[in-house]
Amino acid sequence: MRAWNRAKLLWGYARGRTRLRALPVEYIVETTAKCNIYCPMCPRETHPQPKEDMTDAVFETLVRQTSKTGEHMMLIGLGEPFLDRKIFDRIQFCDQHGVSSLISTNGTLLDEKAAARLLDTPLEHITLSFDGYSKGTFEFYRKGAKFERVRDNFLNFCRMKHERKSKLQVVVQMVRMDGNRHEVEDFTKFWRGVPGVDLIRVKEDETNLMRPDAGHGAAEWTHPCHYLWRGPMYIKHNGDAYPCCQSYMLDGAPVGNVTQSSLEEIFDGAEMQRMRRLHLDGRAGEIGICARCCTTIPHPFLVAGSLLFHGRTVRTLLPLVERLVYLAKLPARWLNPPKPVPVNRQSSDSSATPLVQIGPPQPRKSSDSARPE
Predict the structure, then answer these.
(1) Residue 227 falls within a domain, yes or no?
(2) Smallest Cα–Cα separation from 373: which of 148, 195, 160, 214?
(3) Does some domain include residue 362?
(4) Within its chain, how far is the Cα of 69 from the centroid?
(5) Residue 187 CA to its chain's centroid (Å)
(6) Where is this region: Disordered (predicted)?
(7) Any bridge partners for residue 38, and if so which?
(8) Among 18, 47, 7, which residue's Cα sits nearest to residue 234?
(9) Which of 8, 25, 64, 298 is deepest in the core (most CB within 10 A)?
(10) Residue 136 contacts by C-beta under 8 Å, 6 or more apart in sequence?
(11) Is pLDDT at 369 greater than 50 in this prediction?
(12) How many other C-beta atoms can be found within 10 angstroms of the C-beta atom of residue 298?
């Protein structure tokens, strides 16, 4: 059923169809809107969130509707997953319905007890967010989080994962911004030497809070956005469904609610079809949220390729594709990022550093054994 669903999505994308009669492969599911730290680049700072979790009714309705077609569910949003007291149960529920799961955490609550419990679940992927190598930089971007505590939580979690020989994929990620770009080399060097880390990722900030003039603009769209065909669709804690995660953060309106309409009705609804038509006609810039979006848009060849494989496989291969593109091993036109916003930089700034750096950890020499300070 999942392969047939992907085949229909591929056919619809390749033929330029606006009505797909299929469902997204991936979903971003905000199981909680609560967070315990302040991050200046996070959209929750401009979109105040209620201190609420997704109810069982909303979550179970969503998972049951996607059980035959959904392949990858990211249990993240504008909240910290470990503030959701049912996060471990949610991971189990996804697995029981054949859907792989992913979470991303700020690490403040990932103590040894939580780490052990998490490693006992069927979770397949976790992103450890750590936006700085030094204490000062990290705590500037993660206000309310203690550098040493989060660093040690992540190191202990990776050690436990390594000792258990767990197959859980662990990615340590830095969002590169003007205030931390000078630490990229030290960041990657340190985390490459940590057993249990599978990938180190340094990616560009995809929000426009700290660079409000960024975005694709009205005339930059050369490919239709993959989100509208394959997902991930963004589901807020209250069941509101958005075409993608960026649409909510850019003040877009929901295209439905999973407790009031079926996913089929939402995904092939009038608004989704209207947006697909504008993208197909090269007029995506007429959609306000799309014109201001900072997300990289892959070439249609990559989108089509992503629908040939299970979402789990795509999630594993995506970092390799990104790395090859940014290292000029594949044509740059295969990924179409928004035009960068000029910033005042000193001549020593490493502007030649690739926007995305992803690679497996490598053995560390003894001289690299010091922890970041």
Answers:
(1) yes
(2) 148
(3) no
(4) 20
(5) 20
(6) 338-373
(7) 143
(8) 47
(9) 25
(10) none
(11) no
(12) 21
Smallest CA-to-CA distance from 129 within 90, 193, 63, 82 is with 82
The DSSP annotation for 119-137 comes to HTS---EEEEE---SSHHH
Residue 347 lies inside a defined structural domain of this protein: no
Q: Specify the number of domains making up the chain.
A: 1
CB 225 within 8 A of CB 298: no
Interatomic CA distance for residues 152 and 371, integer angstroms: 10
Tell me the DSSP string of 147-207. HHHHHHHHHHHHHHHHHHT---EEEEEEEE-TTTGGGHHHHHHHHHTSTT--EEEEEE--S
pTM for this entry = 0.86
The DSSP result for 33-65, as a single string, is: ---SSB-TT-GGGTS---S-B--HHHHHHHHHH
Residue range of the domain that includes 78? 1-296
Is there a domain that residue 372 lies in?
Answer: no
| pLDDT tens digits, 189-234 | 999 999 999 989 888 777 766 566 666 665 567 789 999 999 999 9
Instruction: Give the phi and the psi of residue 249 in degrees, each rounded to 5.
Output: -70, -20
DSSP state of 371: P
Comparing 32-36, 109-113, 317-321, which segment has the lowest mean pLDDT? 317-321
* CA 267 – CA 264 distance, rounded (Å): 5
Phi, psi (degrees; rounded to nearest 5) at 37: -135, 170
